[in-house]
Amino acid sequence: MQYKRADRVADVIQRELADLLQRRIKDPRLHRVTVTGVELSDDLRLAKVFYCFMGESAEQENVARGLERARGFIRRELGKRVYLKFLPELDFRYDPSFEYGAKIERILKELQTDD
To answer: What is the DSSP secondary-structure string of the chain?
Structure first.
């Protein structure tokens, strides 16, 4: 299986973003954010950053605002760590897959207790 350059760069960006969020961001809204994936356009100009967070679903809007507010700082710090001709624009998108997984797990547990 052959990987495109965009896929390899996306993996590097995901690792660096996760490290930045864990170690460099001081905004308390972003302490429980996890980067679940990065999709990079073929021209490496746009990065869709998928994230989830551990907390109440009501906090989702605050987390999104925190990421938008920190976008410039995150991109600047990313530029210091990843050397590319053009640093991609970051587009943060909430990833609901963990919520779905937790919901399915609850349903399966309920079915087990019913038996």
So the answer is: -PPPHHHHHHHHHHHHHHHHHHHT---GGGTTEEEEEEEE-TTS-EEEEEEEESS-GGGHHHHHHHHHHHHHHHHHHHHHHS--SSPPEEEEEE-THHHHHHHHHHHHHHHHHH-
Residues in contact with 80: Cβ distance below 8 Å, sequence separation at least 6, in sequence order: none
Segments of the chain scoring below 70 in pLDDT: 1-3, 114-115
The pTM for the full model equals 0.82
**CATH code, domain carrying 59:** 3.30.300.20
